[in-house]
Amino acid sequence: MKRTVLTSSLVLVLGLAATGCKDAETRAQEAQAKIREQLKDPMAEALAQKLPPEKVKEAQRHLAVLKEYLGETNGVLDSVTVNAIQAFQDSHGLDANGMLTDQTLESLREAAGKKS
Questions:
Q1: Which CATH number goes with the domain that contains 66?
Q2: What domain range includes position 48?
Q3: What is the pLDDT along the chain (116 residues), one digit of tens a residue?
Q4: Percent helix, strand, coil in the chain (nearest 5)?
Q5: Same domain, 22 and 49
Q6: pTM check: above 0.70
């Protein structure tokens, strides 16, 4: 069995060499780039949002009312705030990506208003 696997692997490698290493290498690089694209870091993307501090502060206030956020209400979008946004989004059927969209903020307003 091992000999068959090794032989098959050798045939594959020789076949790739015969068709041109550059083509195989290019295909491998393209596949690697696609994989990297699919493995985006949601936290990094959420933290990179350019939001006015007032909007973040409003979200923090609403999240605090909902007991989703225990940090300081300071308008700074940090990992604690993003985690709280994600938790809220997840528990309210929204895309839990940590992005403070208008839809998320509106849902926060509604949910916090019901708690007040």
A1: 1.10.101
A2: 43-115
A3: 444 444 454 444 555 555 555 688 888 888 888 877 776 788 889 999 999 999 999 999 999 999 999 999 999 999 999 999 999 999 999 999 999 999 999 999 999 998 86
A4: 70, 0, 30
A5: no
A6: no
